[in-house]
Design brief:
Elements lengths: L2 H44 L15 H11 L10 H17 L18 H22 L3 H32 L4 H6 L11 H14 L24 H26 L17 H22 L5 H29 L6
């Protein structure tokens, strides 16, 4: 094979793919880092405090200081822990939070991998997040960590069922598993209007899926002492921390895509259409992320029995009923997409 054929056939596409991945991952990591700053500022405003305001102007360098502190700390591994699984668990959680963005479209054609079953890919990646938590709780060789892992795994599995039915309802309306097609199907009407109950169920289930308040039961201080990651420190803890915020941003992006029209401008008329699509997508993600923080500042933590009752006795029947109702409505009026 000639050298030119090698570069054009293998090397250049590989370099282009690496650059595309970096173009997504590097900004995402910056956003995740400053999501912690945003949360602390929003909670401070809700509680009439200042929040971070010492490190840098307006405290803007606080995430860098936090990262440096965690990086310089010693990673302590319990003597009875399984060292390989203990170290692999936070890596798995963090990597899963990143690779899900491979199918997220930011604009027409602006997507790393425009696969036809993108929504199934997202559902599969989010389901795999349970493994990182189970691995962390089991490998720590601590009863508190193991109980926290079991509680978190049961919580995530319970709410994934409702999320699945919500996704199927959206797919019925869009007629495609491709994420870009789902966005384009909302050109005339965002799905948040006809499917408002499902949008609420999806968002609340996203709170439970990411172990966020008021469903942060694995972190119940009085009974579990921070749950499955209680034995983690330094950068291993930081990976869990970053993975949690990356998952929050991912759920916000999925909410924007499934119900808020993704990159589409509101009303589809000037002057809204003058703003580029990625800007609208970012603003919708920011709004959904703000709602995550708003809920944390507002609601107290649920009890575990309340959490399970809401998932199995309220959200599951409601999402199943709305799925059947949507299918019947679309069939009766001949509106099923082909």
């Amino acid at each position: 094979m000639a050298e030119g054929d090698f570069w054009s056939g293998y090397a250049l596409p590989l370099v282009a793919m690496v650059l595309e991945i970096l173009a997504i991952v590097v900004p995402l990591l910056l956003v995740v880092a400053y999501a912690t700053y945003a949360e602390r500022k929003v909670l401070a405003a809700a509680q009439l405090r200042k929040g971070p305001n010492v490190v840098g102007p307006f405290g803007l360098l606080q995430p860098l200081a936090d990262g440096l502190k965690l990086f310089m700390k010693e990673t302590v591994i319990p003597s009875g822990a399984n060292r390989v699984v203990f170290a692999a668990a936070p890596m798995l959680t963090f990597v899963l939070a990143l690779i899900a963005w491979a199918v997220i479209p930011f604009d027409p054609g602006v997507v790393l991998s425009n696969i036809n079953v993108g929504i199934l890919y997202l559902f599969a990646i989010s389901s795999l997040g349970v493994y990182g938590i189970i691995m962390a709780g089991w490998a720590s060789n601590s009863k508190y960590a193991f109980l926290g892992a079991l509680r978190s795994a049961a919580q995530m599995v319970s709410y994934e069922v409702s999320i699945g039915f919500v996704m199927v309802t959206v797919l019925l309306c869009a007629g495609s598993l491709n994420i870009s097609d789902i966005v384009l199907a909302q050109r005339h009407l965002w799905y948040v209007i006809p499917l408002l109950p499902m949008a609420v169920v999806f968002f609340i289930s996203g709170l439970a899926e990411t172990n966020r308040s008021p469903f942060d039961l694995p972190e119940g201080e009085s009974e579990l002492v921070a749950g499955y990651f209680v034995e983690y420190s330094a950068m291993t803890f930081a990976l869990f921390f970053l993975g949690e915020y990356a998952n929050m941003i991912l759920v916000s992006a999925m909410t924007s895509i499934l119900f808020l029209g993704g990159w589409l401008a509101p009303f589809g008329v000037p002057p809204f259409t003058w703003v580029p699509g990625p800007i609208w997508f970012f603003l919708k993600i920011a709004f959904c992320f703000f709602c995550f923080l708003w809920v944390r500042a507002t609601f107290p933590r649920f009890r575990y029995d309340q959490l399970m009752r809401l998932g199995w006795k309220v959200f599951l029947p409601l999402s199943l009923f709305w799925l059947v109702l949507t299918a019947a409505f679309l069939t009766a009026f001949g509106m099923l997409p082909t």
